[in-house]
């Protein structure tokens, strides 16, 4: 997506920003996602009196750095064997903050998908070892 200088310096409403980000990423980005970026300081907020605006240029730069480049950057830092699937990068923010995860900005919280991944991948073996002994299926 190429922008002229005039276009890139434009300010957008949260709704316009979510529409632009949705088009840019090819996946749904909600107004809540944009509000989250503002709340956590990923992009700056402009405007006052309830009129929240964001910079189109800053929003696009954020998503450019986010879209695919993050994986390469982390693999450079941590090694090529990094399991990027555990980043859950393919999920939209609304899915990773389901349930009560947006009640407060606790930085150490786990996204539900991470907990589900580890429980699902280890629960079956645990159940087999602890609960199902040889001969249990015989009557």
Please explain how this structure is put together.
- The protein has one domain.
- Helices cover 50% and strands 4% of the residues.
- The protein has helices spanning 5-8, 14-25, 31-39, 56-66, 69-78, 93-96, 112-130, and strands spanning 11-13, 53-55.
- The chain has a two-stranded antiparallel ribbon with strand order 1-2.
- Helix 2 crosses helix 3 (31-39).
- The model is unreliable at 1-8 (pLDDT under 50).
Q: What's the short version?
A:
The protein is mainly α.
What topology emerges from the helices and strands here?
Layout: H1 5-8, E1 11-13, H2 14-25, H3 31-39, E2 53-55, H4 56-66, H5 69-78, H6 93-96, H7 112-130
Antiparallel strand pairs: 1-2
Helix pairs in contact: 2-3, 2-4
Radius of gyration: 21 Å
Q: Shape from CA axes?
A: elongated
Global mean pLDDT: 75
Structural class, please?
mainly alpha
Instruction: Report low-confidence residues grouped into runs of 5 or more.
Output: 1-8
**Sequence of strands across the biggest β-sheet:** 1-2
Tally of individual domains: 1
Main sheet: strands, sense, barrel: 2 strands, antiparallel
The end-to-end distance, rounded to whole angstroms, is 66 Å
Helix coverage percent of residues?
Answer: 40-55%
H/E order of the elements? Answer: HEHHEHHHH
Number of helices: 7
By DSSP, the count of extended strands is 2
Strand content: under 5%
Features:
139 residues, mainly alpha, two-stranded antiparallel ribbon, 7 helices, 2 strands, 50% helix
